[in-house]
Amino acid sequence: MSPALAFGIRIFLLLPLAFSGVLALAQGTTAETDRDQPRQREQWFMHGRLIPGESAAALRYRAHAQKMQLRAEQAARMNTAITAATTTAIGIWTPLGPAPLASDATGFGQQDYGWVSGRATAVAVDPADATGNTVYIGGAYGGVWKSTNTGPLSANPANVSWSPLIDNQATLAVGSIAVQPGNTDPTKSVILVGTGETNSSMDSYYGLGILRSADAGNTWTLITQDSSGT
């Protein structure tokens, strides 16, 4: 056997041993790396972030709901603070009516007509109220007002009380009021209000049609055209 052939055989026989040594070294390195226990690290990380018997999705949803609740509470506190600041800045408004007002706008008595109120353009007594206490009144641009104690219930006119009925309608200009006769239930009175004022003053306003109520002024429908569409 030649020396070269013998050397080749030795190399061939030694290769498996060398590979085994490298593999053992690699395994030893991996074992050395695993000494920090990654599985235990993961378990420690999840500890306190999970509740036995509840899914992670449910916990996340609960956290989201709590976050949104905190945001809403913060927004409410900010709105309260803004409202308080605004009230402090502009003061608190006090209504002056409905009640007569001093006519002298100059303050020097140059146009003093005494105590006056806005023009009352229409008055209608509800025939359904046999006591005569239910009355509707309309103002030039003051809307429609209703009282249920204008008759025997209030011997003193100062005790008569009024409630506005059309403050949320398209116009407050009133020229006429009619209450349909033949009804015996004041809570179901049919009322027609002709909007617009025909007194031809500088502050008279056009109307928008007829306001109709079938429940004594609680709700209204605006009629802007007749049955022919005109």
- Level of helix content? 25-40%
The rounded distance between the terminal residues' Cα atoms is 128 Å
Quick one: biggest sheet? 4 strands, antiparallel
Q: How many domain modules?
A: 2
Question: What average pLDDT do the residues reach?
Answer: 78
Explain this structure to me?
By secondary structure, the chain is α+β, with helices and mostly antiparallel strands. It folds into 2 domains: 15-88, no CATH class; 119-223. 33% of the residues lie in helices and 17% in strands. The chain contains 3 helices and 10 strands, in the order αααββββββββββ. The chain has helices at 3-33, 38-46, 56-90, and strands spanning 101-102, 115-116, 120-125, 135-139, 143-147, 163-164, 174-179, 191-195, 210-213, 221-223. The strands form 3 sheets. It has a 4-stranded antiparallel beta sheet with strand order 3-4-5-6, with no helix packed on it. The chain starts with a helix and ends in a 7-residue tail after the last strand. The mean pLDDT is 78.
